[in-house]
Amino acid sequence: DGLHTQAGSTNVVDLHGRNNTVVCLTCSARRSRVEYQEEIEVMNSAWISEFLPPVNCEEDIRADGDAHLAHEDFHDFHVPPCRACSGGVLMPDVVFFGGSLRPEVRDAAQRLVEESTRLLILGSSCQVFSAFRLVQSAHRAGKPIAMVNIGPARVDPLVP
User: Which one in 52, 113, 128, 160 has a CA-CA gap of 20 to 30 Å to 61?
Assistant: First the structure.
């Protein structure tokens, strides 16, 4: 997350959010996910040392990077509240499957496609409709579309 900006790109729209930030579900305040993770670890150091496997242990690590926890009682695990509103719940600042884009993000992405002369797709299957519809829009407008991707993509019929 943020690699496009770090590489010098400007006017970047993070269509599905950024995994390196968390957002409050109450007040929409954002903060660094790393800082939030560190706060969680400090608040729960005793719980972590008792119930989580050691860091270098590869015991039951799942394909998505999650670990299976045999312990099912989380009543002693503390989730830090939002600092901005003193009570909101924070979650990764991403759109999960089934979620919706924020209207201002959707509109900004559409505006960029409309203002462009061509579209380049890098490393995306465009499976979700929010990305697919942007490619459809460029295709309907007769704009050249190029794609660099490993494997098939939903938009393959729209890319010459």
Answer: 128
